[in-house]
Amino acid sequence: MSSGPERPQVVAHVQEPLPCTLFDCKWVPRSARLLCLGSAARGTGLIRLYELRGARVELLREIEKAKPIKCGTFGATSLQQRYLATGDFGGNLNIWNLEAPEIPVYSVKGHKEIINSIDGVGGLGIGEGAPEIVTGSRDGTVKVWDPRQKDTPVANMEPVQGESKRDCWTVAFGNAYNQEERVVCAGYDNGDIKLFDLKTMSLRWETNIKNGVCSLEFDRKDVNMNKLVATSLEGKFHVFDMRTQHPTKGFASVSEKVQKSTIWQVRHLPQNRDIFMTSGGAGSLHLWKYEYPAQRSKKDSEGAEMGVAGSVSLLQNVTLSTQPISSLDWSPDKKGLCVCGAFDQTLRVLIVTKLNKV
Amino acid sequence: MPVWLREYSWRQTGSAVYLSLPLPGVRVTPANIFCTDQYLKVSIHPFLFEAILYAPIDETNSTAKIGNGIIFFTLYKKEEAMWDSLTIENDSKEKLQYLRENAVLKAHEKAKEETEAKKVTKQEHKKYALEATMELEEAGRKRIEDMKEKERQKVTKELELWKKQQEDAEKQKRVQKGRKLHKEIEQLKERKNGRMDKTGILNKGTSETRLKPTKDHGSYSMFSENLKEEQLPAPRSAATIKINFTSRVFPTALRESRVAEEEEWLRKQAEARRTISADLSELEDLKEEEKNPDWLKDKGNKMFATGNYFGAVNAYNLALRLNNKLPLLYLNRAACHLKLRNLHKAIEDSSKALELLTPPVPDNENARVKAYVRRGTAFCELELYTEGESLKEASTKSLQDYEAALKIDPKNRTIEKDAEKIRHLIQGKTQDS
Predict the structure, then answer these.
(1) Which N-terminal residues, if any, form the signal peptide (chain A) (predicted)?
(2) CB–CB contact B170 A164 (8 Å)
């Protein structure tokens, strides 16, 4: 992958060492500010607000909380409010107003164990329908919350009585193209991926990808579900074509093996839903482009519609760190601007160039 | 014996000597000519010409021209002088020999020096070539670096521009907000004015007209806000979806590369459970499956479920003969004995099971609860048939067991109820006796 003149380049714009462990990093929508969520050395949670200034980031605020914070999202708040929803190591879901962060706007002890992953939908002027937050936890349950309803989740996906639980590692919202439709996709450590339909409150599809599922994302939350990328341990990821569901075979998929190390995150470019970046356990980032097949669906031998998966091509890869890059976020306002956090306690702001020509 | 060549002719100038040597019928090559600064030899089989020169010459610049059957030497003298003769007349053979050897040595040294010089120049050439390639590569790398730098700077500039835009947009928003607030304050003021001026008709007229448009504005904005809120649907009605997981024995995450190892391990575990203590002679006539304690346990469970308690006990007995370290076998046999009213045996088996279920860990919680409950029940039943001291013993033991079970699983209502019942029973009995 030498620097061919037309390939997108990944330019490391800023590198900022942090005094804390970094679990998640997020851009604050409609601004040049970003948030780091993590834990201090003494076992308390930290939210650090930075602003991008020239060739550096400047720390604006540091907020300390009781428990380390694992994940956060702006997905369910309005653009005026921009409240941050976080999940922490104690299983608490909190929504914070960053201007007045002493008391959370909404708080619930949602799970018995650490909340591994969180996602929000219905906010930020994207999509329609009620704002909702979904959390997935090590206690094996996936719960959907509405910030207007206290204490009880509006949907709870839990194992059958007596079933031994598996950790839920990742959750994602999708298919929220009108007020009623919504799906939640959850990935577990035993390789299960389950798709729950919230309109019918049922399990719509499940599959097992033979490796623990680290990260799931739909290419767009607010359209008819188009593509789902699932990344897993052992360096593999799968791209599912979600437009056509076959009654027995489910969704068609294409998979790629990158390196031997875990692929920690996948994030789609907000401005182009066919480009996504995966971050790996060897400190590397890979930028991919999905190409659609000539025909997205075909009929199988019994006449049922079956999806056809396309192909994935690598646009660029770069190794930034020796430690896994565990979190990644594209800026929704500036195309190509992204932030990533790695376990070497460094925050990196990157710029990916030439995305217009891809 | 070589033929000495004596026929030669020579002439000289102040600085050079010209010697011509005829060589009839032989081909001369430069290898045949040997010359040092004071010795000249030409040896071509069978001819030999040798001359010890009168004075030293500069042999590097001197030349030998090989023509048809003749060699023409041009020897440049080191010192400008006229030679009396071409050669030094030499008498002693040793001197001659010495001179010859000297000459050879000198030639040797010269050759060495020449090779050294050649080596040195070769080295220098190599070095030069290496440096040149390094420079080229450096230039290439630099070019790439520069391209990258340019990109970086371009992108940084764009970012700054975008940031400025953001800030401007925010400022605009703030200004607008300020204006809006200002407007609202104005509206409030006007309304107040309107109310105060109700008495004055003229004023009322004017203030009313002023009020109307602003009021309309106010109501319009209120409406739009209400609409927005109503656009959000109500929170979903709560529901639960029950799920099953693809079964996995190990608590760790699934990795493809480890699957083979894990299967190996499980297979070995299953085999280890098969025959721990086996009396092979008795068991030879049994079928393969009947030697597997797991299979026998399943068989026993099935028979228990259908009500065939004796059969179940037999199955468990055989399984225990094969492997007497499985606590579940004792546990299930205790249940059978309970059903068969063999209370003492039930108590024995539950105790054995509890022994085997140490250390107490969350994994065998369920089994331990069952064991305590069964033993408690057995004690309870026992007391219905005993009297006196042993009665008290039985009931306290029973209560202890139920409490232990409750400790492990505090949320189980049936255990609670049973424990309560026993407590009442004990209190009642002690009151009686």
Answers:
(1) none
(2) no
DSSP state of A17: E
CB contact under 8 A, A52 and B241: no
Longest dimension (CA), chain A: 62
SS3 B262: helix
Residues of chain B with pLDDT below 70 are: 89-91, 194-231, 274-291, 384-392, 429-433
Interface of B with A (CB under 8 A): 144, 147-148, 151-152, 154-156, 159-160, 162-163, 166, 170, 232-246, 248, 252-257, 259
**Tokens 């105790």, residue located:** B351
pLDDT tens track for B235-286:
888 888 888 888 888 888 889 888 999 999 888 887 777 655 455 555 556 6
Beta bridge partners of A311: A291
Cis amide linkage into residue B359, ω under 30° from 0: yes
* Cβ contact A158:B242 at 8 Å: yes
pTM: 0.64
Angle of helix B293-306 relative to helix B327-339, nearest 10 degrees?
A: 20
Does residue A113 sit at the B interface (CB-CB below 8 Å)? no
Q: Closest by alpha carbon to A93, among A61, A132, A62? A: A132
ipTM of the complex: 0.82
pLDDT of residue A4: 57
Residue A223 burial (CB count, 10 A):
14
Window 207-266 of A: residues touching B by CB (8 A cutoff) are 208, 210-212, 233-234
CA A25 to chain CA mean position, Å: 11
A196: amino acid identity, one letter: F
CB A67 within 8 A of CB A57: no
Please count the residues of chain B: 433
Q: Which tokens go with B98?
A: 């010495």
Is A196's CB within 8 Å of B256's CB?
no
**Spatial separation of the C-alpha atoms in residues A185 and A204, rounded to whole Å:** 10
**Amino acid symbol at B207:** S
Contacts of A179 (CB under 8 A, 6+ apart): A128, A129, A130, B233
Secondary structure (3-state) at B288: coil
Of B156, B234, B248, the CB nearest to A13: B156
What SS3 class is residue A97? coil
**What are the angstrom distances between the C-alpha of B208 and each of A17, B196, B355?**
64, 12, 93
Q: Within 13 Å, how many C-alpha atoms sit on residue A214's CB side?
A: 24
Question: Contact at 8 Å (CB) between A157 and A142?
Answer: yes
Instruction: Give the separation between CA B200 and CA A33, rounded to whole angstroms.
Output: 56
Question: Residue A120 in 3-state DSSP?
Answer: strand
